Amino acid sequence: MRIVCPFCGERELGEFTYLGDAKPQRPAADAGEDAVYDYVYLRDNIAGVMSEHWYHGGGCRAWLKVTRNTLTHEISAVEPAAGAGAAKVGA
Amino acid sequence: MADFSWDIRGPLDRALVAGAYGAQGDAGVSLTEIRNFDLVQVMARRGKAGETAKAAKARFGIAAPETPRAVAAADATLIWSGPDQFLVLSKDGRHSIESLAIVFAGSASLSDQSHARALISVSGDKARAMLAKLSSIDLHPDVFGVGAAAATSMDHTSVTLWRGNDRSGQAVFNLLVFATFAESLWHTILDSAAEYGVTIGHSEEL
Question: What phi-psi label fits residue A87: left (phi over 0), alpha (psi between -120 and 50 degrees) or beta?
């Protein structure tokens, strides 16, 4: 599997580290225990297209959001995660 | 309590043995450790990439790289190291962290890497063949020309790789590696280069 880093170009899997599901959103402070439990512990085990965080630690050290099919490893989109670089996103 | 005496020692002092190594005859690979350089990491602060770029242009007379490239200024090389960040490689204190701190005050965070990295220059007929064993980067001259740079990994070790100006008609690849990983990578490079014959040396010329 290769990932096309938006900053570096196409790179081998060994340069990246998987950092899990990119979907969970931190609940509001008053959302209650169940919502926090869900956010911290519960994950869907998706067979198909999934949004994931990957870290390009062996390269530019940017966090990426990768849309990947867990059945075929087909990657349909890669974008910088919020906060990657000073200008690209979340500035 | 025991007295300690601290010797200042380069990261490759023990591993580097100047002279010939590996196959005999004309050396296919030339390895040179570059010593006594100044290296400063410049990282734009959030929302300050434009200001950082402007400050760099004013200081160095050229634009800092925004893509994986290494660009040569009059007395420094600016090497891309990630989004909105680059390394300043120079010598003789011309662009020390103290002098750059004034230039990038308020726009970028700086970190002195002068003693945190080893710099290895690789050239020779077989340089590309040797590096191809360690790197998954396409080093073909059509793809990785003079000035191309990459933040990548070799032998599971993060490196900054860039192609400098050709010397005597031959490609020159420069490698910055974390000081504490330098000896390990050096041995891996020697293993990879041995079949081509190696000339080993060190220099203070960037």
Answer: alpha
Work out the minimum CA distance from B141 to partner chain A, whole angstroms: 17
Q: What is the CATH number that goes with domain A2-24+33-80?
A: 3.30.2270.10
Does residue A32 belong to the interface with chain B, where contact is any CB pair within 8 Å?
A: no
Give phi and psi for B190, each to the nearest 5.
-60, -40
Question: How far, in Å, are B140, B183, B192 from residue B157 at the CA level?
Answer: 22, 11, 15
pLDDT in tens, B137-157: 999 999 999 999 999 999 999
Domain regions of chain A by residue span: 2-24+33-80
pLDDT in tens, A17-43: 999 999 999 999 999 999 999 999 999
Tell me how far CA of residue B82 lies from CA of B34, B94, B198, in angstroms.
Answer: 23, 24, 32
Put simply, the chain A residues between 40 and 59 with a CB less than 8 A from any chain B CB are 57-59
What's the ipTM? 0.90
Distances (CA, A) of A2 to A75, B10, B157: 9, 36, 18
What's the burial of B152, exposed, middle or buried (CB within 10 Å: 0-12/13-18/19+)?
buried
DSSP string of B80-118, one letter each residue: EEETTEEEEEESTTTT-HHHHHHHTTTTEEEEE-TTTEE
Which domains does chain B carry?
19-35+115-203 (3.30.1360.120), 38-112 (3.30.70.1520)
* Predicted structure pTM score: 0.92
Q: Which of B84, B153, B158 lies nearest to residue A87, judging by beta carbons?
A: B84
